Amino acid sequence: MGRYLKRSGGHGMTLLEIDSVTKEFDGDLTVLRDVSLTVRPGELVWLRGRSGAGKTTLLSLAGLLSSPTHGTVRVDGAEVGTASRAAEVRRSRIGFVFQKPLFLPALSTVDNVMLPSPLPHSEARAAADQLLTRFDVGSRADHRPGLLSGGEAQRVALARALMNDPALVLADEPTAGLDAETAALVRTHLAELAHEQRAVVVASHDDGFADVATRSVTLRNGELTDA
Ligand SMILES: Nc1ncnc2c1ncn2[C@@H]1O[C@H](COP(=O)(O)OP(=O)(O)OP(=O)(O)O)[C@@H](O)[C@H]1O
């Protein structure tokens, strides 16, 4: 786990800065209205809101997967102007965890985890094995991902999200569909990532995040409010 605990704090630094963002679809559907959110290293922000409130839309803006109609999004202080710069920031600074992790079925589990790494093969393999062990799925490294249970798949997804040692981790419903015990484990793992001075944003209907989040925000009618 060593190298993942060495991240220096950068206290007070803003890792994610969403500033007065509006997101419209098709010119008429306004999903987000003048939304601002600042997340610092060490924070786990729990993003709440009813189905269709715009949580996934906000995460995709934070993850530089889409652009705001108005307003700005900065990750790690970087102004993300061009698509290629966004891709570079996404690859090097952001880890994603989704509700249903997608893996390449023809590759082994560990090869899926290594896929995003720019490291030489042997180093990437060592880092991937270390991460799989950290999340207690080391014994699944050489299995096909199609054979993983839901809880194992989500823990492999956590390993993959950490492969490039991201400063920002974005998770969309990471505990949905998991049994209570596995869901609690995933919440604990996400809290650890914040303790390592990463910035973590989790969109979830899971009230268990009340115990691990450093704060919560709620999307309602396109607007973001505290708690
Ligand atoms: N690409 C798109 N084009 C048009 N409308 C979209 C698009 N993406 C999302 N929407 C709409 O934006 C609204 C917010 O969707 P979003 O998926 O962000 O909600 P959510 O809060 O994540 O919901 P859930 O909790 O059900 O996952 C919905 O009304 C959805 O239909």
UniProtKB/TrEMBL annotation:
The keyword Nucleotide-binding applies. Signal peptide: none annotated. It comes from the Bacteria. Keywords: ATP-binding, Nucleotide-binding. Residues 16-227 form the ABC transporter domain. Pfam families: ABC_tran. GO terms for cellular component: plasma membrane. InterPro entries: AAA+_ATPase, ABC_transporter-like_ATP-bd, ABC_transporter-like_CS, ABC_transpr_LolD-like, P-loop_NTPase. The keyword Nucleotide-binding applies. SUPFAM superfamilies: P-loop containing nucleoside triphosphate hydrolases. GO terms for molecular function: ATP binding; ATP hydrolysis activity; transmembrane transporter activity. Belongs to the ABC transporter superfamily. This is ATP-binding cassette domain-containing protein. It comes from Streptomyces alkaliterrae. The lineage of its organism: Bacteria, Bacillati, Actinomycetota, Actinomycetes, Kitasatosporales.
